[in-house]
Amino acid sequence: MSRQERKKASVTSQRKTAENIRPLDVPAGVIGLGLMGRSIIACLLSAGHSVVGVTRSMVRHRGTRQQVLALLREMKKERLTNRDPVAMMDRLSFSEDFGALAGCGIVIESVTEDLETKKRTYRVVEEMISAEAIIGSNTSAIPVSLLQKDSLHPERFVGIHWDEPAHITRFMEVIAGERTGDQYAERVMGLAAQWGKEPSLLRRDIRGFITNRISYALFREACHLVDSGAVTVEDVDRSLRNDVGWWMPFAGPFRYMDLMGVESYYRVMQDLLPDLSNSSAIPKIMRKVVESGGRGVSNGKGFYKYSPAQAKRWQRLFLKFNYEIRRLAMKYPEDVGDRVIS
Length: 342
What we know:
Layout: H1 3-17, E1 28-31, H2 35-47, E2 51-54, H3 64-77, H4 85-89, E3 92-95, E4 106-109, H5 115-126, E5 134-137, H6 144-147, E6 157-161, E7 173-176, H7 182-194, E8 200-202, H8 211-227, H9 233-242, H10 244-247, H11 253-260, H12 262-272, H13 284-291, H14 308-331
Helix pairs in contact: 1-7, 2-3
C-alpha cells in the first residue's frame, strides 16, 4: 500500500470510528467571542460538548448568550440538531479568566489573525490546561509550525480551520505543524466528524492550507480580468456562479476533471496557464475598494454598493442559502459514487 493509500485509509478509519467518540466527555473552550467564535460555540454545543467561552472583556460581548441561543434555535428549526436549544445553553458559560479553561480537553482559539496576539494567548492558556489538552487554532493562513514554536507542549497544537457560518458548513481543515503529534491530529479528525464536518487532513504545514490557496488564486485572476478591462465585476460573478458554482457542491476539481475528461484539461493547460496572472501585488480594483474605506456589506461599500436594507437582505439570504446548500450537499457525500446500490 502506498503512502497516499495509507493516508486515505487512515482518514477513512477515523471517520468511521468517530461515532465511538463522545464529545460530551470532552469539555471544550473557545477563546474569542466574535462572529466566528459564537458560531463555533453553537456547533460545539449542538455536538454535545460543555463549552466555556473566554474573552478579555465581557462588557463588549453582553449580547453573546442571546446570539448563541439564536443560532441554536436556527439549527433546531433547520433540523441540524434535535436537542433543545435552551437545554444546550445550560452547558455554556463565559469568563474573563483564562483559568476557567482548566478542565477543558480541547481549547479552540479564534482571536485576531496576528501571530504575536495568538502566541501571547497561548502562553496564558498553556499555564491553565493539562499537558494532554489539545490547543486548536482557527487560523486561516498563519502556519501552525510558527504558532507552536516556543510552546511548552508543541505536539498538541493543531490547526483547526473553520469556515463561516461554522455551525452550518461541512468544511473543516485539520493541519499538523512540524511538531504536531499524529495522535492529536487524529483525535481532532474524529471530533470533527462528530461536529458534523467532512474534514480534510493536512499532514504537512503549508501557508493558506487548501481552500485559501486555491480561492486566492481564483480571486487574483478575477481581479486581473476586471483590471485588464476585459470584463466587469458582474460578468465575473455571473460566469462563476453558473459554472464553477454549479458543480462544486457535487465534486472537487479532481473529480470534476475525471468526469469531464482529464486529457482535455491537459491540452488547455498547455496554452492557458502561461497567460494567467501570477502577480504578487494586490490587484488595483481591490486597492481602490479598501483605500476608499470599503469593507463590503458591513459598511455598504465593497465591489458593489449596498443600502442598509440591501446589506441586511444579502446577509439574510446568504444564511438561508447555507442551510439549503448543506441539505443538498448531504445528499451527495464525497464517496457517493463509490457505494454499491443494492
